[in-house]
Amino acid sequence: MAIDWKLLIDVRERQKSVAMGIVARDREAAEESHAQLQQAEAWRQQQVQSKAQHWQATVGALSGGQCNVAQLRHAGAWSGALDAQIAQAGQAAMQAGQAHAQREQVLEASRQQLRAASGELEKAQQMQQRARTERLRLMELRQDEAAEETASQAWAARRPI
């Protein structure tokens, strides 16, 4: 059974090319999910800073004597609303983190597929080279045998009977 090495190598090259395309697509998706994660973290941090600024302003109003009980209640209610926004932003950041982790896992799996495809291509190329070397060795062996046979026949033809 003869193996069509050129065909096998062409198939392996196509597999490697497809794997490279998948890695590129998955890398882009991972970069996009990383950007979304950073955006979600920035929004969460902004919400935390908003709450800190709110309470700094409230403390400033209290120390200046410009805050009454109704305003203090309003500040507490607003702080609760900010807590809800912080929780929502934290949840969004957590979900973005999970999505990014999944994208990174998919990217790593596609990179592994690319490594495997590259290995298979290299293996096929090495096998083709070995087959070529063996074929050349056999051709040389046949030529040597043919030369010996020719020399033997020439010697036998010159030999007196």
3D structure, described in words:
The protein is an all-alpha fold. The protein has one domain. It is built from 2 helices and no strands. The longest helix has 90 residues. The radius of gyration is 38 Å and the shape is rod-shaped.
Write the layout of secondary structure elements.
Blueprint: H1 5-63, H2 69-158
Helix pairs in contact: 1-2
Sheet/helix structural class:
mainly alpha
Element pattern in H and E? HH
Oligomer: single chain
SS elements, strand count: 0
Summarize the structure.
The protein is an all-alpha fold and 161 residues long.
From the structure above, extract its key features.
mainly alpha, 161 residues
